[in-house]
Amino acid sequence: MSRLARAFGGIWSRRDEVVVGFARFPVTILAIAALTAVGNWEVAAPDGLSREVLERISLALVAMIAGSAAAALHLERRGAGYGVRQGASACAGVAAAAAVWFAEPLLVAPPALIGALLLAVPLAPYVGAGCAGFWAFVWRLINTAALAFVTTVVFLAGVSAILASLEYLFDVPIRGAVYGHVWVTGLGFVGPLFALSQIPRQMPAEDAVDRRDLVVAGVEVLSDFVAVPLLAVYAAILHVYGLKIVLTGELPKNQIGWMVLSFGMAVLLLRLAVHPFATFARATTRLFLRFWPFLLPGPLLLLAFAIAIRIGDAGVTPRRYALVLFAVFLALVLAAQAVARLRQDIRIIPALGMAALLLAAAGPWGMMAVSVRSQAERAVAILHAAGALEDGRVARTAALAPADADALRSILRFLAEAGQLDRLAPAFPSGEGNPFAGGRDGLLARIEAAMGLPAGPRGPDRSWTYSARPGAHAAVATGRFDTLVPMLDWGVEAPGTEIALAGSPLTIRPGPDGLTFTRGDVAATLSNADLARLFGQVIAARDGDPAARDGPLLVRAEVDGREVALLFESVSATIVAGAVESVFGRYTLLLAAADWN
């Protein structure tokens, strides 16, 4: 209780700062409140929003939060009037949210845009204001975020303890969703509001650092004895591997791009972290600050070679685009070190990162546009090589090799997920047989058939999930069932359970192919196909009746003329082409022992 009182006291003692924070960032705080409301809605009604809509709303609001905060900080540092600041903040936030919300038609990559906006927040006050104080400001933001998180978590843990005590000691009914609302509101709104209130009005003018500060001392020790030695060893490994490729002609392994990306990011982050330590650091950190650019050219060349091979073989994808972008970014950072006035300006690293992410976010040169264009051209090239094209259009189904069929199917799935299957429309003749003539429903399957793709595994059209909620209590009529077998997992092999019956026992054994009932030499199985068919009926009924969606999920089935029932605790079903293809879930089996005697 004392920790709760201290946490609440810490927040309450800064109430004036919180009010000032609201006045400085009203648009940002309104977006945070909206995001918190969405989180609470999801807690109250987990099936109220589809996953796709929930993701779009959440990402749009995150973009609005970052864009509005960056605009407000920049104009506040420039001395703009209050109305101008808030108007620009609102415009920036709405524009960022709209770009994310309409990401598919605009070919925007939301992760890249949001990453650029997040980098813009610390950079905004120091655009056109010199680099002195930038490190101190970022350090202040990190400490503020950590303080807000710890204080809020302690406060929420105390509130949760109070609620649990009321329920235990006084039998006050408190639903589990109440705890969810408390934590979502605390972490989603109270903590960020507290953090915003701690952003300084007067930006630091120098990068002074107190070596006696416990956190600074910890970073210094981490750099001297852990980070720098590990980076040196990893750099040696990458350089030796590059030399091996040169001497043996071996092609780089598939994951080398991500290994180089991780190494490069670690080097740059350490460079930023220890920027003001040069005057008092030990020899290892001082050597790193002086020679860190020389660690990167070798791995950068290795990355460029690996990417060129992969793109030559399979075209550009968002992942490969990201690696190319990182290689360009790293090359520009290294080039900046050759300019004396930029060498000690650490803003150049996040600024170039923000510029690279903005380049990737949208436009004809963006991540999605380039990837879609590349994969559409690759699909046409595969069809051309297979002899399926005449005058640049599909004239006949192709005899595709298995590897080409898999590649085409992968391309089509990517274009479908990006909403860009129309890019292939020029490759098909107009008139009868054109897969685009039948509308959007079933378009992917019609294109596959027109290209002559053999039947093969397809990605799920959608997934359907169920989880028993503590607040949705309802009685389940068991009827004549008198035997329960709890805690079974459908689709997972497990040891058999024996039920004593007159004569020989009945053994129930879950497996990857279904649920097998064995007595003596006679066996019967409730198969995956049987359960999938039953779940098709269950899903149709529940989707058509929202009131029944949260109720108990009891599925009745027949096994060799005997009735059984499965009471599910949780389910995840995959639906392909309108039919249930697979089911996984935890359930309790109900049966009547007399049926098996």
Structural class, from helix and strand content? alpha+beta
Compute the CA-based radius of gyration: 30 Å
Mass-distribution shape:
globular
Please tell me the overall pLDDT.
Answer: 87
Discrete helix count: 20
What is the compact description of this entry?
The protein is α+β, with helices and mostly antiparallel strands and 597 residues long.
Describe the structure.
The chain is of the alpha+beta class and 597 residues long. The chain has four domains: 2-197, no CATH class; 236-345 and 359-363, no CATH class; 370-459, no CATH class; 464-596, no CATH class. It has 20 helices and eleven strands. Helix 13 (297-314) packs antiparallel against helix 14 and helix 14 runs antiparallel to helix 16. The longest helix has 37 residues, at 134-170. The model has no long low-confidence stretch (mean pLDDT 87).
Task: Give a quick set of tags describing it.
597 residues; alpha+beta; five-stranded antiparallel beta sheet; four-stranded antiparallel beta sheet
Q: Would you spell out the secondary-structure blueprint of this structure?
A:
Elements: H1 2-13, H2 15-24, H3 26-44, H4 51-77, H5 82-101, H6 103-106, H7 110-123, H8 134-170, H9 176-197, H10 214-248, H11 256-273, H12 283-291, H13 297-314, H14 318-336, H15 340-343, H16 348-361, H17 367-385, E1 389-390, E2 393-394, H18 402-417, H19 443-451, E3 462-467, E4 483-490, E5 497-499, E6 506-511, E7 514-519, E8 522-527, H20 528-543, E9 553-559, E10 562-576, E11 579-591
Antiparallel strand pairs: 1-2, 3-10, 4-11, 5-6, 6-7, 7-8, 9-10, 10-11
Helix pairs in contact: 1-8, 2-9, 3-4, 3-9, 4-5, 4-7, 7-16, 8-9, 10-11, 10-12, 11-13, 11-14, 13-14, 14-16, 17-18
